[in-house]
């Protein structure tokens, strides 16, 4: 589903991703963790070409990411993304946020798009908020809208970049519950998160990044209970 081979990226002189190799198969769930500034966001943003890499190869759902706009479009069709700060359109209702892309990108008739959106809003347990504006919702509700909105495009892959780190503690669970459900439905997922309970519950692999490199990767059990690298041990001792 996703294949990164010797991927390198620089911001000017700064070498932000160093020889990243990563293969994600269909239905796999990957959790990425690591210190702030280690390149986690950059890495997942490269997977749907919100950032471009300068060296190496990224292939997503059979399409290589290059300057070819057609391929970029094909990849973005297959990849949904949720960010820390929801990025909902404030001037559109919850329902309109969800139907916008299906109507304008997929040319779906409005009624059909609304039915689809309501279906996903039910799955994230907020169908009753459909006519409200994002600003009228709690952070946890807004993040669930953001997830529903992504799912309306029927992606094969979902990328999450610290989806719960801007939330008040009492709202973290409701968002994680939606993500766990999605994982159990077989979605291919890459999640940048420091929610280690979530990682233990759903991850097939946990990847630890530091200073632009993948330092260690393992199944959650061995990753948490028997970390190999000093840097992983130090990081875990700081967050657990
Ligand atoms: P993480 O998500 O692990 O915190 P990021 O991928 O956001 O890390 O950032 C990795 C490094 O790249 C940081 O040092 C950050 O300051 C730098 N960086 C991120 N985005 C840019 C950018 N657009 N231009 C220059 N430097 C950037
Ligand atoms: Mg980040």
Automatic annotation (TrEMBL):
Coiled-coil positions: none
KW Cell wall biogenesis/degradation (keyword) present: no
Family matches, as SUPFAM superfamilies: P-loop containing nucleoside triphosphate hydrolases
Localization in the cell: Cell inner membrane
Cellular component terms (Gene Ontology): plasma membrane
Membrane-topology annotation of the record: Peripheral membrane protein
SMART domains, A to Z: AAA (SM00382)
InterPro entries (UniProt xref): AAA+_ATPase (IPR003593), ABC_ATPase_HisP-typ (IPR030679), ABC_transporter-like_ATP-bd (IPR003439), ABC_transporter-like_CS (IPR017871), MetN_ABC_transporter-like (IPR050086), P-loop_NTPase (IPR027417)
Alphabetically ordered keywords of this record: Amino-acid transport, ATP-binding, Nucleotide-binding, Transport
Domain of life: Bacteria
GO molecular-function term, one example from the UniProt record: ATP binding
Keyword set includes Transport: yes
Similarity comment: Belongs to the ABC transporter superfamily.
Name of the featured protein: ABC transporter ATP-binding protein
């Amino acid at each position: 589903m996703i294949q990164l081979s010797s991927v390198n990226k620089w911001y000017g002189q700064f070498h932000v991703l160093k020889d990243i190799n990563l293969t994600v198969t269909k239905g796999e769930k990957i959790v990425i963790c690591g210190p702030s500034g280690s390149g986690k966001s950059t890495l997942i943003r490269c997977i749907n070409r919100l950032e471009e890499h300068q060296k190496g190869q990224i292939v997503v759902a059979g399409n290589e990411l290059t300057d070819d706009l057609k391929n970029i479009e094909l990849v973005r069709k297959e990849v949904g993304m949720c960010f820390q700060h929801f990025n909902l359109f404030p001037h559109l209702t919850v329902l309109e946020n969800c139907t916008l892309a299906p109507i304008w990108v997929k040319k779906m008739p409005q009624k059909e798009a609304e039915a689809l959106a309501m279906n996903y809003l039910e799955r994230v347990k907020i169908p009753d908020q459909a006519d409200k504006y994002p600003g009228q919702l709690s952070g946890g509700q807004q993040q669930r809208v953001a997830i529903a909105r992504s799912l309306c495009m029927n992606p094969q892959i979902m990328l999450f970049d610290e989806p719960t780190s801007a939330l008040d503690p009492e709202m973290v669970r409701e968002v994680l519950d939606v993500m766990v459900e999605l994982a159990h439905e077989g979605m291919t997922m890459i999640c940048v998160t420091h929610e280690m309970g979530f990682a233990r519950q759903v991850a097939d692999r946990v990847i630890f990044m530091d200073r632009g490199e993948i330092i260690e990767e393992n199944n959650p059990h061995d990753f948490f209970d028997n970390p190999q690298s000093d840097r992983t041990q130090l990081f875990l001792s700081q967050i657990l």
